[in-house]
Amino acid sequence: MDHLSSLDRKSEKKTDNWMQMEFPARSENESLARVAVASFMTPLDPTLEEMADVKTAVSEAVTNAIIHGYDGEGEGIIYIRCRFEGDLLEIEIEDKGKGIEDIKRAMEPLFTTKPEMDRSGMGFAFMEAFTDHLEVTSHPGMGTLVAMKKKLGTYAWIEEI
Fold it and tell me: Mind spelling out the 3-state secondary structure of the chain?
């Protein structure tokens, strides 16, 4: 029997694709975002670890938009755009909320502007840890764009002999 590696199987299935969605900035929609992005990336045949990484990063970005961009008040819209080209998954999560005054400071682990809400200040650190590239663009009063990239297929299968 001919054994194809995981990468070979994926290359037979790959097509470039994209999607976008928007939803109200309410905490109950965080799970919607996770599931939508996870479903979108399934044609790339991700490992369970890759799927968990992306879902965690998306969850953190959406939660940040809800709590910090819109002050957790349920007002506003969150926009998600995803695309893949080959094995590269790109995700953008955007809000049109209050924006970030000091991005460098906001990205420091344990920094939070909402300590009264028991926020850990680890959102950006998790996004950075679970993706291959993270870029944050923000303008006070205009919102924030979180762009993440994750190359899939980096966890090689070990075939039994």
Answer: CCCCCHHHHHHHHCCCEEEEEEEECCHHHHHHHHHHHHHHHHHHCCCHHHHHHHHHHHHHHHHHHHHHHCCCCCCCEEEEEEEEECCEEEEEEEECCCCCCCHHHHCCCCCCCCHHHCCCCCHHHHHHHHCCEEEEEEECCCEEEEEEEEECCCCCCCCCC
